[in-house]
Please model this.
Amino acid sequence: MTLASLNAGIRLALATTREHKMRSFLTVLGVIIGTGAVIGVGSIIAGLDGAITGMLRSFGPNTIIVLKGPVMADWTPEILRRKALTLENARAVQERCPSVQHVSPYILNMVMSIYDVHKARYKGNDVYNVDLGGTEEGYAAGGTTMKAGRFFTDSESAHHMPVVVIGEDVQRQLLESADPIGKWIQVDGHSLEVIGVMDRPAASLPGQKDLRVLIPYFTMRKLYPNLKEHMLVVIAYPGMVDQAQDEIRAVLRLERRVPFNAPDTFSISTSESMIERFRQVTSTVALVMVILSSIGLLVGGIGVMNIMLMSVTERTREIGIRKAVGARKSDIILQFLTEAVVLTVLGGIIGLLLGWTISRAAGLIFPNLPTAVPLWAAVSGVLVSVCVGLFFGIWPAGRAARLDPVVALRYE
Model:
């Protein structure tokens, strides 16, 4: 195989493609869809991974979340039946874990039905389904910064002060045209004074709104005595996260009277462990994506093989002439393999453009999603296109190379 023969084969393949534009397009449609799906979905998964990874890491490298069930998984009936974490558990962790700098109990708003949805109101403006929670001053140490005002103090919590800090989107919807500090809003009918507006988290899910409404812990217990579920937000000393987790586990097993041979009745998570669990989910999604796109590539490959077989039949006389003037089997194989590869590479390039379009459209729909076509997706899309052309072009090329020149010259 020489460079000149390869160049001639490519020019011949391009000329054939131009001559049969619609047929060529329909032939590689499966390759276009398969490649576009790989690149488009790959870019969305990469962007989602970046957004969620950033969001989880925004908790801080020393933050540990303790719940009675896992953070990023469904709670089974067994988990729901577990005894709730308590303020006493938080105090025990604070007192008996040397690696722990601070523990903030956080009363969870477990929405079980449409009747549990919480509402904030100010002068006729309503915000529904706010993310209501009660916590202590130390919660802000986990990375919460203020856009305006301040966070509440433990003294205000101890005195059941009716104060509240709100998220950025709550402020925008309720008090966009007014200075929020000092305004009194209604939360489920309770009057609370706004003393601060929190900045949006450093990273958030695409399209996610910041609807946080945080109340001092003991104020929350006074206003919502039926809420029992707690989350513990633990801040470990720098470099002591692993030791802190071991100490927390030991203290909580004693506090909750878990037998030595029984599993934990609580879940301890860090940002890195939550990222690892999230990536296990995305790897499954990526596998499904590869399988589905492979079906498109398989269909496209069969179409390429079919059209190449048709091309061999149409050009039987041409093959006979080439063999009669000295063309070898390898020359015929190279000619048809080159045509198949050129056809699928063109489909791969169109699929690359389709995937880039999908990526850009997702970025416009979800501005918080940092979509971009990853290099690995673009390169793999083109390489797979080449492989499809080679694999499905072998049989037609071999059939052309095996034609008897005498029989081929007689073909009409």
Observations:
- Residues 23 and 382 are 21 Å apart (CA to CA).
- The two ends are 30 Å apart (CA to CA).
